[in-house]
Automatic annotation (TrEMBL):
<dbReference type="InterPro" id="IPR006093">
    <property type="entry name" value="Oxy_OxRdtase_FAD_BS"/>
</dbReference>
<feature type="domain" description="FAD-binding PCMH-type">
    <location>
        <begin position="39"/>
        <end position="209"/>
    </location>
</feature>
<dbReference type="InterPro" id="IPR036318">
    <property type="entry name" value="FAD-bd_PCMH-like_sf"/>
</dbReference>
<keyword id="KW-0274">FAD</keyword>
<dbReference type="Pfam" id="PF08031">
    <property type="entry name" value="BBE"/>
</dbReference>
<keyword id="KW-0285">Flavoprotein</keyword>
<dbReference type="InterPro" id="IPR016166">
    <property type="entry name" value="FAD-bd_PCMH"/>
</dbReference>
<comment type="similarity">
    <text>Belongs to the oxygen-dependent FAD-linked oxidoreductase family.</text>
</comment>
<dbReference type="InterPro" id="IPR016167">
    <property type="entry name" value="FAD-bd_PCMH_sub1"/>
</dbReference>
<dbReference type="InterPro" id="IPR012951">
    <property type="entry name" value="BBE"/>
</dbReference>
<dbReference type="InterPro" id="IPR050416">
    <property type="entry name" value="FAD-linked_Oxidoreductase"/>
</dbReference>
<keyword id="KW-0560">Oxidoreductase</keyword>
<dbReference type="Pfam" id="PF01565">
    <property type="entry name" value="FAD_binding_4"/>
</dbReference>
<dbReference type="InterPro" id="IPR016169">
    <property type="entry name" value="FAD-bd_PCMH_sub2"/>
</dbReference>
<dbReference type="InterPro" id="IPR016164">
    <property type="entry name" value="FAD-linked_Oxase-like_C"/>
</dbReference>
<protein>
    <submittedName>
        <fullName>FAD-binding oxidoreductase</fullName>
    </submittedName>
</protein>
<dbReference type="InterPro" id="IPR006094">
    <property type="entry name" value="Oxid_FAD_bind_N"/>
</dbReference>
Amino acid sequence: MTSLNNDVVEGLRTALRGPLLRPGDPDYDGARQIWNAMIDRHPALIHRCAGTADVCTAVAFARDHGVPLAVRGGGHNIAGNAVCDDGFVIDLSAMRRVHVDPDARLAWVDGGALLGDVDHETQAYGLAVPLGINSTTGVAGLTLGGGFGWLSRMLGLAVDNLVGADIVTADARRRHIGPRAEPDLFWAIRGGGGNFGVVTRFEFALHAVGPAVTAGLIVFSAAEGRDVLRRYRDYVDTLPYDVSIWAVLRKAPPLPFLPADVHGHDIVALAVFSPRPPDEALPAIAPVRAFGTVLGEHVGAVPYAAWQQTFDPLLAPGARNYWKSHNFATLSDDAIDVVLRYAGSVPSPQCEIFLGLIGGRANEPAVDATAYPHRNVTYAMNVHGRWSDAADDARCVAWAREFFAAVAPYAAGSVYVNFLTQDEETRIHEAYGPNWDRLVQVKQRYDPDNLFRFNHNIPPAG
Ligand SMILES: Cc1cc2nc3c(=O)[nH]c(=O)nc-3n(C[C@H](O)[C@H](O)[C@H](O)COP(=O)(O)OP(=O)(O)OC[C@H]3O[C@@H](n4cnc5c(N)ncnc54)[C@H](O)[C@@H]3O)c2cc1C
């Protein structure tokens, strides 16, 4: 980048409608920051695209000048692929429009939209797309990797509800793709991440959800964790698709429904969710209370869009984060013991271990129906190492890595691509699984020079 002369960069600026930021510009530092404060990169150029024309111009510029190119959606990715040092960042954060057609039950979502943008517009009609569990996450990165959340057991993954997309490929052409338009490319973006181009617009199928759903937390002491988690595991095998229960092991936050003497102590929190109203959902949730001694609970009717924001404060941007993740087909007794052992030795009060329950309809498609391959997974387990002070980096990273290694013998041997950290290049095959070869072929066809390589990269076949 340093070899690009000023005239070339100024020429680019005049061709763009959105701002082009360089080091020293007032907005530059804010624009290079992403969710994970462990990532501190200094791009040479950041372009906040105003629309698809800007994206095409920026992609052509990067290609023609051989400039390293990163693409930013919501900026949530733990590995920090949204930004690069000394390269060019195509930043879609100004492209967040969501358009809903309630009669056709379709939503068109711009490539920089956040989950909260989609929930806000779709819930106005009592409709929803199955996305993730934090309203501040980017729709783009989440969907391109698979995308699961509270609705996935009933409605499948985000990729299972994607019916079309507009994408700018490495030749700087905008293409509309779908099941009948460039189907290989459409297949590849449903799990193959940002490897194939810049998605400027997603087209999702919508489903009736809410506005009120049934959701909340039931909290147990970690001292009873072994029984609670074994009963949880046995119970979720019998759960209907329209109920989801995730387990979170952490220090108790000062939640108002928990007694003060529980705050700061080790808990197992079961987060329960159903899109049904309480009279229909509570019978399936009630047995959870018998898993152990309930320290506190807060479960009832809640607006879906509000529930989607419930965990935002615990996962706000600005902290240092290091994750390790495994998929599990089942949770053995031994695995539960390892989970409890490490949950009892978290190196910072912000760390947590969570078990996201998937299964249900998310496991019905064939492994090769979309590029996302993990259709046999019951739990995605994520070790959230999270802390504030850089002086704690080594200690916190070591805890996450040790736990990851200790529990590995009980895991499925696969991982969700969106939970990979920047130092896990060796796990990329685990993430794309049996769909690897076809992804490589599609990459060769649409991005033979690997222009889009700041991602969990699929190198072109050539
Ligand atoms: C707090 C938190 C909660 C999360 N919860 C969930 C969850 O419930 N379910 C779940 O499935 N995942 C979850 N994730 C993981 C999430 O799916 C990934 O972090 C995802 O990559 C975020 O997408 P983004 O657009 O915000 O990220 P970014 O960092 O902006 O981008 C991620 C990757 O996608 C590429 N990319 C971004 N936008 C585009 C685009 N428009 N076109 C092409 N490529 C693009 C980037 O180049 C990068 O490689 C969570 C992450 C966090 C931090």
